[in-house]
Amino acid sequence: MLRKTTTFLLATALTLLLTGCAGRSAVPTLYDDLGGSDGVTALVDAFIDRLAVDPVVIDTFANTDMLEFRRLAIQHMCEISDGGCHYEGRNMRDAHAGLGIDPRQFNAMVNNLMRAMDDVAVPQGAQNRLLGRLAPLYHDVLDVKEAGDDA
Amino acid sequence: MRSDRVWWLFCLVTLALPGTALAGSKITATGGARNVEGSAGGGLVPWSLMAGYGSSGEWSASAFVTRVTVDDYQLDVFGVSTGWGDRVELSIARQTLDVEPLNTEVRQDVFGAKVRLFGELLYTAAPQVSLGFAHKRQRDFALPAALGARRDSGTDLYLSASKLWFAALADRNLYLNGTLRYTEANETGLLGFGGPDGNGSLVLEAAVGLFLTDRLMLGYEYRQKPDHLSTIRERDWQNLFLAWFPSHHLSLVAAYADLDEVANRPDQTGAYLSLQLDL
Lengths: 151, 279
Hints:
The structure holds two protein chains of two kinds.
Chain A: H1 2-23, H2 30-33, H3 36-51, H4 66-80, H5 92-96, H6 103-119, H7 124-134, H8 138-141, H9 144-149
Helix pairs in contact in A: 3-4, 3-6
Chain B: H1 2-16, E1 33-34, E2 40-41, E3 59-70, E4 73-84, E5 88-99, E6 104-118, E7 128-138, H2 142-147, E8 153-169, E9 172-183, E10 201-213, E11 216-223, E12 237-247, E13 250-258, E14 269-278
Antiparallel strand pairs in B: 1-2, 3-4, 3-14, 4-5, 5-6, 6-7, 7-8, 8-9, 9-10, 10-11, 11-12, 12-13, 13-14
């Protein structure tokens, strides 16, 4: 009897919990923590400002339409941070194929992103979460030979 | 005498490397601090990180000084290291142990090399795994010989793996390192190599750290030690540290070190301080 009651109570609690969570979107996404649309746009702009003056990576953008890059970077960052966007660009592997990006340049991109996040005052926790989602792109962004080297 | 010359030559070569090529693209803190044997690590344990901030195609050079002050001893270490392409690390360090109860000191030189085998600390699912050695030459062998040590030199060989998980604990980045070492050294080699109770041992060492910010890491290390001498008991070491990496060029480590019993002197605890400059 006691056992049945306990099971019932547990089931009820679980149901309430689940429906409660599904019912409201109160749990902020990473996108929210980055400042939503305005925050992500500011972050991408700060990122591009830093890339533009970094001699280590500047050459890889020689043939890049920076306005298009900006639009797609905002879209990509929105998608990857659960902002509900749909990234329309090429996948990361195709987008970086043939650029011959090495670990040095990848690290430089990460450094620029970290400093850009500081520039627009992204909280440390959100910075770490975003880096955690971007880190696995290493294999797609790097020159295939280099990435395979480190697999 | 001979190892003195090697030492100065290495220092000169390291410092003479062209400064322009040494900006270093690795992420802050991923060049590590230096352990007491001069390798990239925390304080007591060598980590699988490569010393310095050189990424692919880049050189790095760094120098450090460390002082560990416990109840009856003071250990001073200084050294330099160079890294190439986040792939290879070479290091050299001089340890001087002031044995206060005997009013004497013992010195040792450590020549180290480490190679990253596979994995990338921050970006790959696999941990970063490195293989290293530390060749040690004890320079004041009278005391170790009296305690029963067999040789005045030896070589440690170690395999080390580490990984960083982003936002793993309270949205902070979590770092773990494990090191498996084969060593003949007594008290890292300061008390010689081998003895009546063994010539070599496999030991495990570990480090765990939480990045409170990008530049500040709170961590703990444990270093298992062998026990080759019958005249003294050798015990495991541990430390609780705070490592600060204010820039690519400077890092500071402050720690509480617990060295337990060292050469029949129990409860050797105290302060660990290390300063490091990176080019």
